[in-house]
Amino acid sequence: MKPLLLVLLLGVLASPGLAQQREMILPVPASAYSQAVKVKGGTLVFLSGVGPVDEKGVLVAPGDYAGQVRQTWENLRRILKKAGGSLDDVVTMTVYTTERRWGDIFTDMRKEVFKTGYPSSAFVEARKLKTPGAMIEIQAIAVLKE
Amino acid sequence: MKLVVMLALMFLSFARTAQGQELKKEFLDPVPEDSRSTAVKVKGGTMLFLAGHTASQPQRDADLGNFDAQFKSTFDKIKNTLAAAGGTVDDIVSMSVFITDLRLVPQFSKLAKDLFKKNFPAVTYVEVSHLARPQSLIEVQPIAVIP
């Protein structure tokens, strides 16, 4: 009888909404992304495209790709923190860049940012981004561990 | 006594499971001038990933009209798709908007304001050089979460 009670208690604790399972499928460390991310449970956060702007929406680091990428990470961190999470919760991102030859710079910077596993990602050259002068914009989906 | 405890635990277990399905949505930092929220937080519900929708017609060279006409036709199709899955336009939590000229964004935003009366989804606007049909000015790829 007692083991059965224990099993039921575990069932209550492990039921959906409490535990999150996450698995990075076929990571590609050289390019700092995973081919897929498998997630079960948790709270989803859909972000609007995030670009290299300050709190007032003014472009930061004009003409400086690395500077713009840094600002974009900062903005992603701030928005995710407000949503109750962090950059580590990002499961997938679509990276829009105005010149695809900057891909290597971006990859190196993404390696420094993600320490607990890489999100899945697409890297796309767009003709123009919403903020005039922006060289990068990231559209991300996160799954919070709560 | 043990039976009562067991039944109570079973009930709790089922209640938790049911609770996990209940939909909770939070629209963070709305940006009304762009008809978007900075982020949308979602717990529970059923997810619906839509294809990119355009105003395109079966005849490849059909006249798709001006931007306003294409916006209407694109969202009519999105509404159809959502309805087929049991949802409505209010269930959209995120959209990628691919547009051939970013100068059309203010007009998109104005029309979207009438569409999403209360809560704006997260939106990413990107200018692309071409869509699938040469007449297409816009393609919208939404994600929805249905209660």
Q: If you had to describe this structure to a student in words, what would you say it looks like?
A:
The complex is a heterodimer of chains A (146) and B (147). By secondary structure, chain A is of the alpha+beta class. Chain A is 29% helix and 32% strand. In chain A, the strands form two sheets. A four-stranded mixed sheet of chain A has the order 3-7-4-5, covered by helices on one side. A two-stranded antiparallel sheet of chain A has the order 1-2. In chain A, α2 (65-82) packs parallel to α3 (103-113). The longest helix of chain A is centred in the middle third of the chain and has 18 residues, at 65-82. The model of chain A has no long low-confidence stretch (mean pLDDT 91). Chain B is an alpha+beta fold and 147 residues long. Chain B has helices at residues 2-21, 67-84, 105-115, and strands spanning 24-31, 36-43, 46-49, 92-99, 122-127, 138-146. The two termini of chain B are 38 Å apart. β6 of chain A pairs antiparallel with β5 of chain B.
Radius of gyration from the alpha-carbon trace of chain B, in angstroms: 20 Å
Number of strands of chain B: 6
Largest sheet: number of strands, sense, barrel closure of chain A: 4 strands, mixed
Number of E-state strands of chain A: 7
Look at the structure and give the mean pLDDT of chain B.
90
Could you say which structural class the secondary elements and strand pairing of chain B correspond to?
A: alpha+beta
Give the rounded overall mean pLDDT of chain A: 91
For the termini of chain A, the CA-CA separation is 32 Å
**Strand residue percentage of chain A:** 25-35%
